[in-house]
Amino acid sequence: MSTNTIHQDVRTLAKDLSIGYPRSPRTKLAGYVLAARALDKCRAELAGTQGEYHYACPLDSMFLDFSGIDPGAFKQAVAEGRSDEEMERWIREHATNSSKEEVIRWNNGLRDKRISELDTELQTYLEEYIDKNIPGRVVYHWFDVYDIEEKRLDAPVISDR
Questions:
Q1: Which of 32, 50, 91, 152 is the most buried (most CB within 10 A)?
Q2: Could you give the 3-state DSSP secondary structure of residue 82?
Q3: What are phi and psi of 105, to 5 degrees?
Q4: Cα–Cα distance, 84 to 102 (Å, whole number)
Q5: What residues does the DUF5069 domain cover (predicted)?
Q6: What pLDDT is attached to residue 51?
Q7: Residue 19: in which H helix or E strand, if any?
Q8: Which letter does DSSP use for residue 116 in this model?
């Protein structure tokens, strides 16, 4: 089956990201942060309900690169209509990291990453992105940008007093 032909379950499992959000980058699947979000975006892209989101973006690529999973192979597995539980098994079978400790360190590093610790290009992008999409909010951690914008997390408002 090619990703041009998708299993009917993909449409049932896919979120409509034109009216909702993918899961938080903090939500784990198969032990990895970012994996559940990548799965949501991949399903939505296959079903044509991705809205402004797209699969295999730089954020998804962080998970795919770290886990050693080929983006095309992941998309093919999703196109076969696998449930979250089935994708969790698939990821565990195809990931090249075998150390639970290595994955935990990677997860915690991303969850705790402050915007000031990102490379200059991403800091510059986020400076403008935050001003445009979540103006007037105090944001220090990278994943908070997504969770605030997608209304999973509230952030203090900057006061001009």
A1: 32
A2: coil
A3: -60, -45
A4: 23
A5: 21-152
A6: 97
A7: none
A8: G
